[in-house]
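quick one, 401 residues, struct below
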Amino acid sequence: MCALGVGQIVAWGSFYYVFVSLRDPMGAEFGWTKPQIDGALSVVLAVTGLCSYARGRWVDLYGGRRMMTVAAIVGAGLLIGWSYIAELWQLYAISVGIGVVSSMLLYDAAFAIVARLLGADYRRAIIVITLFGGLASTAFVPLTQSLLDSHGWRSALRTLAVFQLPFCAGIPFFMLRNREPARVHVARGAKVVAGSIRPALAHPVFWLLALSFVSFAFLFTALVFNLEPMLRESGYTTAEAVAAYTLIGPAQLAGRIAVLTLERFISLTAAGLIGTLAPVLAVVILIVLQPHSPLVFIFAIAFGTGMGVKTIVQATAAPEFLGSAAYGALQGALMFPVYLAQAGTPLLAAWIWQIHGNYDLLEIALLVAAGTSAVAFVLAARLRPKPATIERSAEPLLVRP
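---
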């Protein structure tokens, strides 16, 4: 699973964090505004969400080896195509393709693959993969910046395209060879629903988890896009704001390491409470911050820890509460609104800011989102069906016409 984790570092660095690095040089060359370029990332997230269920169902039925390999090769071509763009519409067209590729390469695809491979032992593998994925910004933001400084943004994209072949294509192609379970065979005249998720969709726990994760997606995305100006408005210097922002990544990694270390002793419900309550504390601290207060670092630690743990909870809560027989499809259905929320949050947050021209109202919205995420998860944990019910609802269904 470590090999898949290495692939996640390259995939996240090439198809997500690259937008952060290329925003300024593309804007300087073409005169595009920050919202115009950020809009391309929103397109990536929206398309990723739209593809999430189909991707999950595909992995459930056929596995992920060929899917990841083909996606990485196509992704390399898209990065090369990006390096030749001259118009904004071309960037958006490339972003649609990157959204499709991202749905087949990033976390949720890898999680579905290990769940199919390892069965009940998938949780630890997911934690390990997220540990590697959490290093993507640390590794690729400075790497991409170095390539930009040395060769320009177009050559940087071509170099990133080359990275796809050994890491994002080669690793699944060779590592998963002869390891994945055989594909589901459908008898002539029959329709198979492998591990139907209809019982899960009919249960309130699914919708409570969706509400919890969508609320957290708004909180996380709004803070990522607005934290530095929010802190400056609160009286912090740019250097202080950057220092606090930088601390979030290590705190996120520390949260995941703690869950990995205590994985045998900590329940999913306990991890979920940490992942949802820590951000509530973080937002409360953010609201009451005074200029230059060292509490800003407590905020960063609480928020980062919550983010790190929440990523694991989002990958494991639905299958553990509702059954894991159709992990890919279930997670795909659950993550569909989450990606759409991430795509729309930058525009929604900007609209909230414009109402009063400051961040006061947005901070209240963030507190409401954090509280909603926590309450919805607690209710989902309390209303989860009994294990025997989960097992029956997860049985594959064979429906004849």
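The chain has two domains: 2-183, 198-393.
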